[in-house]
Design goal:
The chain is α+β, with helices and mostly antiparallel strands. It has one domain: Alpha-Beta Plaits, CATH 3.30.70. Helices cover 39% and strands 21% of the residues. The chain is globular and about 40 Å long.
């Protein structure tokens, strides 16, 4: 299992329906399939909507392995990979106006 990764969380004032979650997942897959990103997004077909018990669903888009959270690696991820995934989140926001999309690095 990986050590950390970049996720997109989706938050809404009220609960997100299963149908809307499915639509969000499809929109993420479509965005990745139709646009060129310099990072390699993890296997699209394996993307699953998850929840850490806080009722804020998310999808892991990129996973990393690092024993010591190397500062150079973190800086590279922040400057490159995270920025591209923030672009994806911003594009999703235009399609789902009632949902807040947040791209962030998360340890697990």
């Amino acid at each position: 299992m990986s050590d950390f990764g970049i996720i997109i969380k989706f938050n809404k004032d009220n609960a997100i329906s299963k149908e809307q979650l499915a639509n969000i997942k499809t929109a993420i897959q479509d965005e990745i399939n139709t646009n060129e990103y310099t990072i390699s997004i993890d296997e699209i077909s394996e993307m699953e909507i998850q929840d850490w018990g806080d009722n804020i669903p998310f999808i892991i888009l990129k996973e990393y392995y690092d024993d010591g959270m190397d500062e150079d690696l973190i800086e590279f991820i922040n400057d490159n990979d995270l920025e591209e995934i923030k672009e994806i989140a911003a594009k999703l926001s235009t399609s789902f106006e009632d949902v807040e999309f947040i791209a962030e690095i998360r340890n697990w």
